[in-house]
TrEMBL record:
GO terms for molecular function: fatty-acyl-CoA binding; flavin adenine dinucleotide binding; glutaryl-CoA dehydrogenase activity. It comes from Brevibacterium sandarakinum. GO terms for biological process: fatty acid beta-oxidation using acyl-CoA dehydrogenase; fatty-acyl-CoA biosynthetic process. Belongs to the acyl-CoA dehydrogenase family. It comes from the Bacteria. The lineage of its organism: Bacteria, Bacillati, Actinomycetota, Actinomycetes, Micrococcales. This is Glutaryl-CoA dehydrogenase. Residues 19-130 form the Acyl-CoA dehydrogenase/oxidase N-terminal domain. Pfam families: Acyl-CoA_dh_1, Acyl-CoA_dh_M, Acyl-CoA_dh_N. Residues 243-391 form the Acyl-CoA dehydrogenase/oxidase C-terminal domain.
Amino acid sequence: MSAVLSPDDILGLDSIFEDDDLEFASIVKKWLDENVRDKIGDYFLDATIPARELAEGLGELGLLGMHLDGYGCGGSTATQYGLACRELEAVDSGLRSLVSVQGSLAMFAIHHFGSEAQKEEWLPKMAAGKAIGCFGLTEPDVGSDPSGMKTTAKKDGSDWILNGAKMWITNSPVSDVMVVWAKTEETNAKGEPVVRGFVVPSDTEGVQTPEIHRKISLRASITGEIVLDNVRLPEDAMLPEAKGLKGPLSCLSEARYGIVFGVTGAARDALQSALEYTGTRVQFDRPLSSFQISQQKLAKAFGQYSQITLLAAHLGKIKDSEQGVRPEQISLGKMVNVDTAMNVCRDLRALFGGSGITSEYPPLRHAVNLETVLTYEGTHEVHQLTLGRSLTGINAFAN
């Protein structure tokens, strides 16, 4: 009996997607294979990535903001975007993060909450990869509680003055524009400061974006801070349609959807590489794949990969439907898929023996990256509590 060519073959997973979506995904895969895959191990070891060069290439492919309409964006389906994320993360989570932060956070915020002038100024350049964006919400001492935000925006005549700091911001050191969220002096019905979003060109006086070094995860991604020291912005820098935390949280939900699909690519790549390695690596005069324990690991990983792929596909179908996807459904996808994909990569790493800890083979790199993905855009625990609230009707966040 011959071996399968792809982990998708046994269950016929490709049959759940449209031919046009699969064709686009294959174009993305081909470009990544030709331009990035052979270099990604070195990028990871060197803790860098040529973000500007890649952004232009990804822009030419039509991946940046591809699920948005107009302004140079492709207007694709959610499923097609998800499949593109799968191919990106099959190479490295850092690549998917680059595309996700650009399109689903920075561009999505401007597209959904920005003025017409803001959209026309930034979205075409960002879609083409000529301008890189970042999204400034997370702060050093706040983490999963954005209501504890300390960054402020105060009026000075018709201008805004921003002060504060953001932490763990993908793309910030190489960004041209940033969407920054800050508390204003305006209050809501509860007397709490209202959070507003601002479009901040990165070369504005008072803005610094120092890079964060010494990461041991998501190393093929440029991460930094945003430091705002009396940054003066014109009145029209504010996103007019975003008022309160609903704005930034809706952006995060959009980005989490890409993660749900993306991590299936990391699991698939780890499984594919394990099938190839165990089929050719001879031990005790037999290929590793002939041993029962090897097949047990491979079978378990295949089952887990199939499950998370089906969940991602189902959420894509819901998101593309008229009813749309709900935040708790996205929380389910991120909670289950990231944790499962991480465990797949960890388990399969053992099949490579000592070689598995080198950059020559991808499972450990994927597993280490997924430690970051498990944390960002809502920790595993936050999504558990979100689902717990939906299941029981009780909010346990404050308990």
